[in-house]
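Quick illustration, no need to memorize.
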Amino acid sequence: MNNTFFETIKAHKGGVFNLSYHQARYESVLNHFGVDVVQNLGDLIIPPQNGLYRCRLVYDVYGFVETSYHPYQKREINSLKILHDDTIEYAIKYTNRERLDALFAQRGEGDDVLIIKNGLVTDTSIANIAFFDGKRWLTPVLPLLHGTTRQRLLDERKIFEEEIRIEDLKRFSQVALMNAMIDFAIITKSPKELFC
């Protein structure tokens, strides 16, 4: 398959989390390619009844869906290598992550990378990011990928969008990562210690 896409969905003890947000993104991807026949993802997901799993749902514009379940263990992030890439695009969650993987490979001693595009903070290789300014949690207005957890927290007004430039990083007191598996995870290290 040339264009395949995926959703990563959290499943714990047989329960599935935030499915409506994954359904909405799945439908928006298909609509982007002119497909208006969609499936109910809830009918396709039958997670294990015990433990925490990452459900990987791969699909294409022809209706193919493959679901797999992988035991999940959180990757600890205590350092982010700042990297610049002014041409990277990942607005649709393609299974082809070569560009992101190539950036991740440049992390050196960092646990992950923070990607800067045209001077603006975007995402890490696996998560959206947010910064605490002392009053509010702010997330970049131009992420590489509009994540489902990011969208839910915006809808709940727990985070707020703002243009964040690389030089703004020094004004924040805390950093958090967010994706479907970790939800909203505040990093214990201060920004001064985090970025490398």
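The chain has a mean pLDDT of 95.
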